[in-house]
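Good morning C.,

I know you're traveling, so I'll keep this short. The sequence:
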Amino acid sequence: MSDTSNNASAITVSDLRCGYDGTTILENINFTVTPGEVLFIIGGSGCGKSTLLRNMIGLNRPLSGQVSFFDEPFDYDNAIARRALLKTFGVLYQSAALWSSFTLRENVSLPLEQYTALNKREIAEIATLKLAQVGLTGFEDYYPAEISGGMKKRAGLARALALDPQIVFLDEPSAGLDPITSRKLDELVLQIRELFGTTLVVVSHELASIFSIADRVIMLDKGERGIIAQGAPRQLATTSRDPRVTEFLHRGDLLANTR
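The tokens, ready to paste straight into the viewer:
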């Protein structure tokens, strides 16, 4: 892994083209993420947000282009290099993706069992610590079916943090949550950044989260098959002249006017 003490970007996406079975969904995708930044990938339904995320974390291989972490290209063909790079970031999936037959502690232990040589006691101690960091002390032996949706998201986040990653990806973290629980999850995300300097990439369409915690957004458009705007969300909301951008970022105003 490259030395992250220099001025390297945490993530660099270069000329990325994404799709399935040869069909292009996104093309000419170029952006960087600076260390410690909270970047949101936003846009309407079907614009390719999840497709881009899957290509960035290696679940899908780009049709062309490159994703690099701290100037080190993601090598899809070198299994050893790919495994080493995967250890440097964590992922919170949209549904939390917890194993229903495992306790929360066992779920959080999985990356430690897979990527470290720690013994069972050490793994259990770290898993307990990670659950404490997301406010789930006392719930270590609960099963996913026994906790709320917000708690599942926090448990999924604890698992994403298990290896002390430099980067964490979050796929629609507020999906299915009530506004209060969603706000608490946003606050937790900021706490993680402040405590550990973690770089966070968030896929979301939730305006409350976008305006509350995003340092910067990139906005995708289905028709354009690419990025149509980048910048601080509040600045884009006030200065963009692209109707697609203003309509998306002012949806809250439209809703308020109908009540």
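Safe travels,
E.
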